[in-house]
């Protein structure tokens, strides 16, 4: 059922958020960490709709910090502390799962989030069905801009790694067919990018 799926998505995301908090909270200057509120499934056998969810009511201004697609741009998420920490949370989960999973639709009041989504690169990643298209992951990779909280957690920039890898492969192929004088220089030029790539995997 959709309700059961929704419950599973939110509570899976919540587990990641707890791990994120455990890593981020001890860091000097990080401050409060976003929390995904628990969602509980209740079974009402006598009712027309046998399953329902119950969660804490969030009081205050409800903000969408991360968006479902590139068409919707929310400037609040970039400028607010909660918004930046949500984007860092997405980056952290992305790195922790080797780019296989992304928590999407981060929204809520202040640092309390609810109704989140999950996108997975492969269907059934770790036996888990996401409820968002994997194109969200590609889009996140293309649009994410690291902020100070990403730096505090030591997350790798998604842009530079991609560009450096591309550059590394192009210099290698360019130098190989050239004359012997250039060949002598190849190890020096190729060594740095190659180390860079291997250290990443």
Structure notes:
- This protein is of the alpha+beta class and 201 residues long.
- The chain has helices at residues 2-24, 75-79, 81-96, 135-143, 148-152, 158-175, 180-200, and strands spanning 35-36, 39-43, 51-55, 62-64, 101-104, 107-109, 112-114, 117-120.
- The strands form 3 sheets. It has a 4-stranded mixed sheet. Strands 2-3 form a two-stranded antiparallel ribbon. A two-stranded antiparallel ribbon has the order 5-8.
- The model is unreliable at 168-201 (pLDDT under 50).
Task: Give me some keywords for this one.
201 residues, four-stranded mixed β-sheet, two-stranded antiparallel ribbon, disordered C terminus, 7 helices, 48% helix, Protein kinase-like fold, 8 strands, alpha+beta, 14% strand
Give a brief rundown of this model.
Protein kinase that recognizes phosphorylation sites in which the surrounding peptides have an alpha-helical conformation. Regulates cardiac development and cardiomyocyte differentiation by negatively regulating Wnt/beta-catenin signaling. The protein has helices spanning 2-24, 75-79, 81-96, 135-143, 148-152, 158-175, 180-200; strands at residues 35-36, 39-43, 51-55, 62-64, 101-104, 107-109, 112-114, 117-120. The chain is an alpha+beta fold.
Strands, helices and their partners?
Blueprint: H1 2-24, E1 35-36, E2 39-43, E3 51-55, E4 62-64, H2 75-79, H3 81-96, E5 101-104, E6 107-109, E7 112-114, E8 117-120, H4 135-143, H5 148-152, H6 158-175, H7 180-200
Parallel strand pairs: 1-7
Antiparallel strand pairs: 2-3, 4-6, 5-8, 6-7
């Amino acid at each position: 059922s959709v309700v059961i799926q929704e419950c599973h998505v939110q509570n899976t995301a919540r587990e990641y958020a707890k791990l994120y908090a455990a890593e981020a909270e001890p860091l000097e200057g990080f401050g409060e960490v976003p929390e995904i509120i628990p969602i509980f499934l209740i079974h009402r056998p006598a009712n027309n709709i046998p399953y329902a969810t119950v969660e804490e009511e969030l009081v205050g201004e409800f903000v969408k910090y991360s968006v479902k697609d590139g068409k919707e741009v929310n400037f609040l998420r970039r400028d607010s502390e909660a918004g930046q920490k949500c984007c860092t949370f997405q980056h952290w989960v992305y790195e922790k799962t080797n780019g296989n999973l992304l928590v999407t639709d981060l929204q809520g009041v202040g640092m309390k989030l609810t109704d989140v989504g999950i996108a997975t690169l492969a269907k059934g990643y770790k036996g888990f069905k996401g409820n968002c298209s994997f194109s969200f992951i590609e889009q996140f990779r293309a649009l994410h801009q690291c902020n100070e909280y990403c730096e505090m957690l030591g997350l790798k920039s998604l842009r530079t790694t991609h560009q450096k890898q591309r550059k590394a492969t192009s210099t290698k192929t360019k130098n190989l067919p050239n004359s012997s004088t250039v060949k002598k220089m190849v190890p020096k030029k190729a060594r740095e990018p190659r180390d860079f790539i291997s250290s990443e995997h």
